[in-house]
Amino acid sequence: MTRQMALVGFLQAQNCTNLPSSWRHPESRDDSMSVDYYQEIARILEAGKFHMAFFDDRLAMPDRYGNDHAHTVEYGIRCVKMDPLIVLTTMSMVTEKLGLGSTCSTTYYEPFDVARRFATLDLMSGGRAGWNVVTSLNDGEAHNMGKDAHLEHDFRYDRADEFMEVVLGHWDTWEDGSLIMDKKTGRFADPAKVKRLDHQGQFFKSRGPFTVPRSAQGHPVIIQAGASGRGQRFAGRWGEVIFTAARNVAAAKEGYAAVRNEAAKAGRDPDQMFLCNLTTPVCGATRAEAEDKMALINKLPLEIDALSLLAEALNYDFAAKPLDEPLTSEELKSMQGILGIRDGVLKNSGKINPSARDFVTFSGRGQVQDAIVGGPKEIADKLEEMFIERGCDGFVIAATIVPGSYADFVKHVVPELQRRGLFHKDYAGKTLRENLGLKRPAASAWKTRPQAAAE
Q1: If you write DSSP's letter for every residue of 49-76 in order, what string do you get?
Q2: Is residue 97 packed enough to be buried (19+ CB in 10 Å), middle (13-18) or exposed (0-12)?
Q3: How many CB atoms sit inside 10 A of residue 61's CB?
Q4: Element (H or E) spanning 84, and its range?
Q5: Is 103 annotated as a binding-site member?
Q6: What is the CATH number of the domain that holds 122?
Q7: Is 153 labelled as part of a ligand binding site?
Q8: Of the N and C termini of the chain, which has fewer Cβ atoms inside 10 Å?
Q9: Which residues in 99-112 are b (16+ Cβ under 10 Å) and which e?
Q10: Least confident window among 143-147, 320-324, 373-377, 444-448
Q11: Could you list the residue range(s) of the whole structural domain that residue 143 is in?
Q12: pLDDT digits (tens, 9 = 90+) for 320-370
């Protein structure tokens, strides 16, 4: 079968999309705290045969800039953050085949809790759940979850490795065929096929037995977005859908090869994973129509949007010094969170000591400077190039207008991608794994990888 791309809708259970200025757009719906808002998005994505609707998440509103939340609330910079798993449940009620992915942190939840939440969503949706594994970003999240400070970057991933072993271990404890449900004999399930985990490790203890049987797809799809070297090792070991954010084909190809190499080193088949690059398309029936839309979108972002999101993502207060004063090497080294952002700014700016303004300029945070603008042909050409050049296996489609951006993409771009044979015309099955072409995991198969325990 000819290789085809995966498409994921990038969502936020909040007052805006990943672009904080999106709520300011005159055509964006202003009822982002309603069921109907998310169910309309779900219907649009399923009509467009998207593989998955995915929610990013944080456990705090951005308040690292100036160590105050006032600007966040005043300008609506992701200040509302609802529980995405509950929102996904409402979306599952109006869809049948759309995958349902959500973020949940390994740093601030217990493995048993996460395993149960996602296994339940998987059953309730008929095998359509996906878990985006994150280690969280900053001190704001730590303070909300009863901690004094956020854990150090690489240490968080060390904990997350063991967290994954516990979650997957619980998911594996109900064998296929465990359920009997024989009313005549009174036997509900075979106790010989339901085991306790009894995990005792460096960071976690969890006994079991687990309380949720396996779903139609085995267990939820594992999503990851590690960009640093340590993050890529984690993604290579565990991720099945990997989110990337390369700004050009060359960078995309470099990251694509790196993650697949990490997967191979971990004893995995690199073809059993999908790397999907974050993309912001602004599309219309014609290029001229799209350019008119972009002109309005460009008027919406504020400088404070970028500064606030940079401070949040790097756990560093960019208000601590003037915008144009170079940051010291010590200050750069003290940054935590998404280190790929810091490293990207260093690389793209060509400066050893960039300023806060350089971070705004070269990070793209809170902005739309990397948007792909055009009619169906122009958008499809750009996506096809990165896909064919093996910069990715698909795309995470971000919105500037809700739900208009998703509707425009489905109306104008999806048919063109289908015409070129780059995107499927219908779902292959009912589960997320079937539609992605991922194998149903056998219980405990992850333990047999040659370097599954190597880090």
Answers
A1: T-SEEEEE--SS-S--GGG-SHHHHHHT
A2: buried
A3: 18
A4: helix 84-92
A5: yes
A6: 3.20.20.30
A7: yes
A8: N
A9: bbbbbbbbbbbebb
A10: 444-448
A11: 6-301+370-447
A12: 999 999 999 999 999 987 888 999 999 999 999 999 999 999 998 888 878
Contact indicator for 363, 327 with CB cutoff of 8 Å: no
Q: How far apart are CA 414 and CA 401, in angstroms?
A: 18
Three-state SS sequence of 334-398:
HCCCCHHHHHHHHHHHCCCCCEHHHHHHHHCCCCCCCCEEECHHHHHHHHHHHHHCCCCCEEEEC
- Per-residue pLDDT of 369-383, as tens digits, reads 789 999 999 999 999
- The answer to whether 53 and 41 are in contact (CB under 8 A) is yes
Report residue 453's pLDDT band, with 50, 70 and 90 as the boundaries: very low
Sequence-distant (6+) residues with CB within 8 A of 412 are: 283, 284, 285, 375, 376, 379
Domain boundary residue, one of 317, 338, 367? 367
Token reading at 190: 């075979």
Closest CA to 99 of 216, 244, 264, 267: 216
Q: Which residue, chain included where needed, has tokens 């979850």?
A: 145
Tokens of 263: 């997967």
Q: Please, what sign has the CA dihedral across residues 446, 268, 220, 84? A: positive
C-alpha 363/C-alpha 372 separation (Å) is 17
Q: Are 401 and 27 in contact (CB under 8 A)?
A: yes
Query: CB–CB of 65/319 below 8 Å?
Result: yes
**Is 57 among the annotated ligand-binding positions?**
yes
Task: Tell me, yes or no, whether 454 lies in a domain.
Answer: no
Question: Per the annotation, does 157 bind a ligand?
Answer: yes
Separation between Cα atoms, residue 326 and residue 340, nearest integer Å: 19
70 and 32 within one domain: yes
